[in-house]
Protein 1
Amino acid sequence: MEWWKKEPLRVIEIAHGYEINEKMKVLKELNANMEHLTRYNASELFPSEEFSLHSGILLKPDDFDKYLKEAHTIGVKVVFYYNVHAVNIQYAKKRPDWQQICEDGKAIDNVYETYSSFCVNSGWRNEVFEMLKKICKFGFDGIFYDGPIFFANTCYCESCKRLFKGKYGYQLPQKTSLSKDRENSQWKDIIEFQSDAIERFLEDSNNVIKSVNPSVLFYMNCNTLAPTWPTGRNNRKIIRKTDILGAEGGFLYYGLNEPIYKPGATAKFLNSQAYGKPAVVFCAGKQCPWNFSILPKGEITLFYTQTITHGANVWLALCVDEDVRKYKQQVNIIKRFNKFIKENPSPFIDNTSSCAKTLLIFPQRSLDFYEGSSVPLTDFTKEIKGEKAGNLIEEFYGFYDSLVRVHIPFDVSDEEGILNIENDKYDLIIFPNAVSLADKEVEKIEGFVKDGGNIISSFETSSHNYGKRLEKFKLGKILGIDDIGKIFGPLRWDSIFIDGKIIFSPEYGIEIKTKGKIISYFAKPLPGSYSKRPEISEIPFIVENKYGKGKSIYFAGTIGSSIYKYHFPEYYKLLSSFYNSLSRKILEIENAPTSLEISIRENEKFYYIYFINFTSEMKRPIEEIMPIRDIKVKFFTNSKIGDVYSLWNKEKLTFKKAKGKIIFNIPIIKEYEIIRVKKEEK
Ligand SMILES: [Zn+2]
C-alpha cells in the first residue's frame, strides 16, 4: 500500500525558516506526519525565481539529504512544494514563448498583481519535467503542484491556438465573450480543451515522477466549490492522473463572509469525486489575503473538526513571519487534534462508509453552463437589468445549512456522482437548482424514484441541456410538471400562502402548471410592502408528486438562496418536516442547539457518531467555541450494541436499549466528539 494511504495525513506547512534541528522539533511538537516544504533556496533550483517572502533560514539543496534523514527519523514525510502557476516576471520575460497570453494578445503580467504565468501547452513543460527528475533524485517523498491553471482570459499562445485548431477545426474562440453565450457549443469545447490540457500535463508529470520512483506522491491544488471554467481544473480528470484530491476549502477571505461550512462542504465534495483516493482540504491558518496573519483558535478548530469528520485530511499552514510556537493557543489546538487523529485513526481511514440517508447535489456542471437564468425577468413584479436569478452556490449552501441545523446527516456529490450510487443507499436526493443534468443522470434518477426513492428540487432544476434552456423539465415526469415557464422576481416583500398562513416568499419564482398536489401558492405581488394585505395567486410554489413508489417535492422558487440570505425560521421548519417524512430517521437529539452538526459512519465493528460544535460568540473569525451540555441522543439501529464510548472525552457512556434504538446522554461536548458504538458479534 502507498505510504499516503496507510494512516490519516497530518500535514503541516510552515512559512518561517528554521534551522533543521529546530524545524524538526516544531514538526514533532505539532504531531505532523507530512510536511509541505516551501522554505528551500529556490534560487539554486529555479533560476531567478526566489521565494523570499518570509524571514528565517532558507534551506539549500546541499542540505536536502540531512533534512530528509532527520524528518524521516521523526516519522515525517516531506513533500516538495512546486509553484507551477506564478512565475517571476523577469524570468518570464526571458521566455516569452512560454508565457500565457491574454485575449488582447499580451502576455499575462498580473498574477497576484506582480507575477506572470507559463502555459502547460508550451515548451515550458519540458523544463518542468527535468525539474521533477531532479526533485525525485533528492529523495523527496512527494511533489505538490500549486497550479497549473489557466485564467479567465487566457490562453492564446501559439501552442494553444495550434492544438485547438488541430482538434476542433476552427480558431480558438474568446473565452470571456463565450462566458456570456453559454448556449454556444464552442463554450463546451473550450472548457474541454483546457481541462484536457491540464490532465495531459499531469499525466506526463506523473509518468516522469513514477519512472524515477513509484513511491513518490504526486498531487496538485484542485478546484473547490466553484465553477471549473475560469482555471480549467476539472477534479474528475485531475484525480485520474494524480494520487490525492486536494482543494483550498480552508482559505477564508476578508470578513469570512463565506459560509462557515466551507471546509466541511469541500471535504464531502472532494470525497465524492476522488474515486476512493484520499482527499485533503488545504486550510490556511491566516485571514486571507493578509499573508502574515494568524486565525484565532476557534477557526482552526473548525478546520479540523469539519475536515476530518467528512473524510478528508487536514493540511494546515502557519504563515506568521516568526517562530510559530509563540502562538500557544493555535499551536495547542493543532497539537491536540493531530494527536487525537494519530491515536484514533479508525474513524478516519478504516474502511468506514457513510450512514447518511440524504444526498445533497453540488451542481458542478450547472456552475459551468448556467449564469443565473438567462431569461429576462418578467413583469410579475419588475425587471431589474443585470441581475440574474438563481445563484447556485447560495441555493446549495441554503439547503446545506438547513440540513445541518435540523441535525440530519447527509453526503454531498456532484451530478456525475449520481450514476454510481446504489438505489437503496439513499432515501432522499436534493437538487438545489441543479439546472444541467445529463440524460444518463435523469434516467438514473427516474429509476431511483420509481423504486421508492424521494427527491426535493428547486427552481430551474433539470431545465437546461448544458447551456441551453429547454421547453420542458428533464425531470418533468417526476416533478409532475412539463413546461418551463417564465422567471419572475425579485420579490422583495412578497409572500406565499401555506396552510392558510402568509409567510415570506423566496426572491425568485418560476411560473409552472401542474397536475400534482399543490401545497403552497405564491401571493399576488404587491406594488409596495405596505400597499395592502397579500392575496393568493394561481401560481404554485410547492408541488408534491408521486412517481412509481417514490415522491417528489418541488419548490418553484429559490428557497435555498432565501435561507442562505434571510434564515427565515419558517423555512427551516418546512424543510425539516419534508426531510423527516422523506427519509428514515437515524438519529434524534434533544437539548442541543442548531449549531451542532452530526455525521455517522460505520464499518464492520463500529458505528461512529461525529459531533461538530459550531457554537460561538456571534462573530467571525471565531475565537472561542462554547461547550454544550447534557445532550440526549436516540440512535436508531437494529444491530446488537456492545458498548458506547466517547473518544474525545475518553469515557464509557451508559446506554438504554429500546425497540429499534439505543438512548444515551453525552455530558459535555466541548469543540468536538466522536461516539463509538460497538456492534456486538451476532
Ligand atoms: Zn497556451
Protein 2
Amino acid sequence: MKSDPLYEGDLYLPSSASPLRVQVLLYPHRLVIHGKKEDGSAHTEAWAMATLKREATSSKDTAILHDGENGGKKLVIKSEEFAKRCSPPVSAGAKMMHRFKVGGGMIVASILLFLAIILLGISFVLFPWLVQKAAQFVPQEYEVKMGEEMYKSFIRSQQIDTAKTRLAEEFLRQIDFKTSYPLHVTVVASPVKNAFAMPGGHIVVFTQLLKEISSKEELAALLGHEGAHVTLRHSTKHIFKSLSTYLLVSAMFGDMSGLSAILVQQAGQLNQLSYSRELEKEADETGLETLVSNHIDPQGMLNLFNTLQKGREKGDEIPEFLSTHPMTENRVEAIKEKISEIKSEPKENPQLTRLFLEIKK
Ligand SMILES: [Zn+2]
C-alpha cells in the first residue's frame, strides 16, 4: 500500500514570531500538520482542503497556504511536488487575478479573430482591387496575348459569319479609334442581341444585333463603345478581378493547376460580361469622342441605345451594353447632354455607307 506523502514545511502561528518546523501529510481532502513546539510539546492540527486558501503568488516550487477557518495561520512548503499536488481554491484576490487572466485570454482570442476577419477581408476585397489596379501596369503585349487565348477559347464553340466579319472588319478600319490596341471585330451567328470586347482588342458582335442595327452611325457607336472598353483596359481589369479570387484561393491551397481552365471558363462567360456604371459611362464618352473625331453623327449612340432596348423582354439576356440597367436612363441623359455640347458637324463617309449596306444585305 502506498503511504500518504509527507512534506517538510514552516508553520507560522500568530502567537509566535518564528515559524514552527513541521511535517505535513497530504490527504485528498485535508492536510495533517505535525510539529514540536519550543517547549518540546507536540503540535498537531488538521486543515480541511475546502477551507484552505493558497496565495496566488506561490511559485512553482513553493506553496503558501492560509488556514481559512482559524485565520492568521500560514504554512509554507518548499516542494515542487507538493505545490503541484496541493490544489485548494485560490484566494479571492487571486481568483480575480485568475479570472482576469482567463478574460485576457478571451480578449486575445477575440483580437486574433478580429485580425483574421480583417485579413480575410483584405484578401478578398483589397486583393482583387489591387489586382484590378495592377491591370493598369500589365504590358500591352501580355494583354493582347491573354486576349488572343481567350478569343481562341471562346470562338472554338461559336459559328463565325465570315462574310460579315470581313465587312465589319473593313468598316472598323475606316474609323480612327486613336488606340494603340490591335482592334478586331468578329461577327458570330447568334440569336442573342449582344456585343462585347475582350482584353487586348477583340470585339465580338452577334448577328442578331447586327440585324437590328439600322444605321452605320449605330454600328460605329457600338464599335466605339466596345473599342473604348479595350483601350481603357476595362476588359482586362474585369478578367483580372475575376481571376484574383481564384488566384488567392489557389495560393492558399497551393494549387495552381486550374488556372488555364479558369481562363477558358472566363472566356465562356464573356457574353455575360457586365461592367460598373462608371466604366460604362467612360466607354460611352470615349465612344462618343470617337464618333465626333471621325465626323460621324453622334446621334448614332442614342439610336443604338434604342435598338438595344427595343423589344427586350423580361428574362432576355442583358446585352453587355445595357448591363448597367436600370441605370441606362442616366447614361442616355448624359449622352444627350454631351451631344448638345458638340460644335462640329458630321460629314458623309461614302465608304462607311457602302460597307454598312453590304453588311445589311
Ligand atoms: Zn459597355
